[in-house]
Specification:
Helices cover 18% and strands 31% of the residues. A hairpin with a 2-residue loop joins strand 3 and strand 4. By secondary structure, the protein is an alpha+beta fold. The protein folds into two domains: 133 residues, Jelly Rolls (Sandwich); 112 residues, Cyclophilin, CATH 2.40.100. Strands 11-18-15-16-13-12-19 form a seven-stranded mixed barrel. Strands 1, 2, 3, 4, 5 and 6 form a six-stranded antiparallel β-sheet that branches. The protein starts with a helix and ends with a helix. It has four helices and 19 strands.
Length: 284
């Protein structure tokens, strides 16, 4: 859901950007390390400790064998990530180690991890990080921001200036019914005068307008096709900000150009490279 957090934390512990990590939502819990391991947490804000000492976010930490990482609770945001040095080893399916819960495949036996499960670390990290490296705040997404940038979608021309004005000038709240498939938004209705269309491709971040006028933003587990008109698409660089909005929190859309979206994505890529190089420099 929050690709930046996943990639940044992997970089912090010396992994490849796409190494498998844990995505943690809802309540607290704990992880016991059976062998020594570098790790880092981030994304959602969490009250976490290792051996009774607080664990800061986006910081390289080291756990001795037998140590226990305790996540008391999430204090802000929606998805916490735990990256482990070497990455989590699970079988590669369709080019990915991620879990697709609706289809019950991938990741750890195609299901959520539960009490008593044991996961294996994949091996050596790409580099050896130094404990205590902390990512600079200016390199991270502005998770506290309510503003999420969008570009025009596949069916943008089917909506008039009034409908675009509602999308761009009004605040929407994340609905409690939102999940990894899509975030339903509560707020002023955006008139859908065309109804359903023949199914066509969708993507993560597409803003759909169903017949009731309540926008739905497709998220990480969304279907690949659908018939609701797609008025806009959330820019890639702002998807982490949207993903971390909890039910009841507000979001406001800002229309930008494709060129602005591409610049934001290039900046995110540069920030990730800086995080990787800074972490490696601290280990040298």
């Amino acid at each position: 859901m929050d690709l930046f957090a996943l990639q940044a934390l992997n970089a912090i512990v010396g992994n490849a950007f796409d190494a498998a990590a844990l995505e943690w939502a809802l309540g607290g819990g704990s992880i016991r390390f059976e062998s020594e391991c570098f790790f880092a947490i981030g994304g959602a804000r969490a009250q976490a400790s290792l051996g009774g000492k607080p664990v800061p976010p986006f910081t390289t930490c080291f756990a001795e064998a037998g140590a226990e990482l305790v996540i008391e609770r999430l204090t802000g945001g929606r998805f916490l990530y735990v990256a482990l040095g070497g990455g989590i080893y699970v079988p590669m399916i369709m080019g990915s180690r991620s879990t697709y819960l609706p289809g019950h495949f991938g990741g750890y036996a195609g299901r959520m991890i539960v009490r008593g499960d044991s996961v294996s670390v994949g091996g050596q990290s790409a580099s050896v990080p130094a404990p205590g490296f902390n990512c600079q705040a200016e390199l991270l997404p502005h998770y506290e921001s309510e503003v999420v940038r969008i570009i025009r979608g596949t069916h943008a021309d089917l909506f008039n200036d009034v409908q675009w004005g509602v999308l761009g000038n009004q605040a929407f709240a994340i609905s409690p019914t939102s999940d990894r498939t899509g975030y339903r938004l509560k707020g002023p209705a955006i008139e859908n005068s065309v109804g359903n269309l023949p199914s066509d491709p969708g993507c993560y971040g597409a803003v759909q307008i169903p017949t009731d006028g309540a926008p739905i933003v497709l998220m990480a587990d969304a279907p690949t096709v659908g018939g609701y008109p797609k008025i806009a698409v959330v820019v890639d660089a702002d998807l982490p900000i949207l993903a971390q909005r909890s039910p009841g929190e507000s979001v406001q859309f800002e229309l930008v150009t494709i060129e602005q979206s591409q610049r934001a994505l290039r900046k995110r890529a540069a920030d990730l490279r800086t995080i990787r190089s800074s972490g490696a420099a601290s280990a040298s």
